[in-house]
Design a protein that fits this description.
Length: 124
Amino acid sequence: MNNILIVEDEEFLMRTLQDNLNSEGFTTDTAGDGEVAIAKIEKSKPDLILLDLLLPKKDGFYVLNQVKQNPEWKLIPVVVLSNLGGDVEIKKALEMGADDYFVKSQHPIQEVIEKVKDYLEGRK
């Protein structure tokens, strides 16, 4: 079973993503800030990370950098899901190794779920 780590500080969105992914048969874990996210990645090495960029403590760029610089984690797909929709932020995240980037206001939850399924089914 594929395990997805949802790194999101907005409680409603976190629960919505979690409910939708669980109903699709995925197991999920959540982290509300960057420090907790790193600890959970160390503990369980998820199959995919859904990552917000605007987070308390350590931001999503920090988490993304930690994941992509770690030889044990760098192949974990990271899908950024953020309110930051500027070209600078999108380009920076993709250059740092994000596998995909969704601006929250421009993409319905189901589109994000479908992209997650594409990534995980492609790895089977």
